[in-house]
Amino acid sequence: MTGSSVFRSEQADGMPDPWGVRRAEQLLTSLEGVLSARVVTTPLGEVAEIHILASSALNPKQVVRNVESALLAHLGVKVDHRKISVAQTAEVRPLEALEAGAVRERAMKRSVLFEGFTVTTAERPHRVVVSVTLSHRDEPATATEEVPDTLKARLEGTAKATAGLLERWIDRSTLVVDGVTVVDALERRSVMAVVRGMNGRNSAVLTGLADAGDGLERAAVFAVLDATNRWAEMRR
Fold first, then answer.
1. Could you state, in chain order, the average pLDDT of each consecutive group of 10 residues for the chain (236 residues)?
2. What are the backbone dihedrals phi and psi of residue 25, each rounded to the nearest 5 degrees, phi first?
3. Fold exhibited by the domain 107-233
4. Domain extent listing, the chain
């Protein structure tokens, strides 16, 4: 019935149609800026309340006018604007999405990411320059070490370059590489790093292990990161 505030069926029995409420709510949630809608009716099908959750993109008064116009134009239902309440929010997402977003944001702020590693020939004979690039909070940094061209020296130089980068992002702390070694166990080759972390009067011996499948020097970087991860995060 045009102009009425009652949801009725198209049948001739005059009984309220509960699906009219469902259609009204679906219509309202299709409006711009409306995130959810709930229509409350009396036992006779009269509109008692309409609750709208909307984004902050539109003025609440505009949302109310849009609701009134949509109900009248599409369903022939006229509703007093005083029965329409509007709550606004900046953003509504499922809880899982909010939690995932928060975790990702926190991780991006605190994580040290591996960006690259190179070995180049030094000017002096039988020596090489190892270069490690890491990033923290999307800010890359590179450290280099010139070492003799031996496996042991390359691994130690790589580990020292990594530790030197980490020191830049940890206040009043020092990282000293005590040793790096290749470990063959359980049919796998890994690199183990032992790092001493010093902060004030406190010091801790930290150990880390990384698979050497992508190269021993690269594994040395990840072994240092593995050793210092928790210790460093607590001090950043």
1. 54 51 88 90 85 87 91 85 87 51 49 86 92 86 93 94 87 85 88 87 86 89 88 65
2. -65, -40
3. Double Stranded RNA Binding Domain (3.30.160)
4. 18-92, 107-233
